Structure formats: structure tokens, C-alpha cells
Amino acid sequence: MTNDAKGATRSRRKTGAPKNWRDIFIAKLGETSNVSAAAQAANISVSQVYKIRRNDPTFARRWFGALTEGYDNLEMELLHRLRSGQTEYVDEDGNKRKFDLGTAFRCLLAHRETVAREKGRRTLAQEAATIASVNAKIDAMRAREAEAKRLMAGLRRNKTDTESDG
Question: From what superkingdom does this record's organism come (predicted)?
Fold first, then answer.
């Protein structure tokens, strides 16, 4: 989103986005957990990224993966601040700011179910890939065993044929 001369907010057009806008968006989303900030960094409108997420399952998976990563980062930062007692920091402009622990907790709680669901989906996908890989190896072993049996039967047949000829 950008502001025009009158201060009105307008959405960025998709055509202004760089070719790698998806990678930029996903990286920023993982860093910030903020769709608007990620869209702005990728130079694409928020409505456009939501539309693409609805229509592109691969992009949707990357999106939820980035959000999961972002909430993991927030949780780690929150733990660090709680353990160190560091609740204030200086922003990029040199302003002293206070880290809002309450909002961080509420944000983590609000998205706990989404994050758990995404982690469960990833685990399930990894398990399915592992099972498929093991099954493929077993199938290959069975095929090699069947070929070895076929070759052994041929050798036995040849041995029997030569013994009866002699």
C-alpha cells in the first residue's frame, strides 16, 4: 500500500511487483508475521496476495509455513525478553520503544491452533514421504529377489539339460 499526495491509501498493482515477489513476500512474512508488511516489501497489494493464496495451493503452503516460522520467532523473542528482563529497545529511527509482552502473548495464543495445524500437516507430509520412500525400496528389493530367482531357475535348468545330454 502507498500513500498519495493527499495521504489516501491505495493498493499497489500486481504489475509493479518484481518477478520474485513471492520469495520476497514469504521471507518478509516469516520475519514479521505481518501480511501487510510482507505485501508492501514485495510491492504487491494485500488483496492480490490473498487472492493468489486462495488459488495457488503451493503458495498457500509456503504462506502458512512462513507464518509458522514467524510465530516460532516471536515465541523465541518473547522467551528471550522474559528471561533477560529486556522490555525496551531502540528502533531504526533511534526512538526508545517498549516491547509489548501482553500483545505478544495474545498474538501467540490467537494463532496457536493455526500453527499447531500447520506443524501437524508438515509432520504428516514428512511421514507420508518417508513411508513412500521405504515402500519404494521394499519394491525394488522384491524385484531384485524375483530377478535373482528367475536367473537361478535358468541356471538350474541349464545344468539339468547338460547333465542329461552327457
Answer: Bacteria
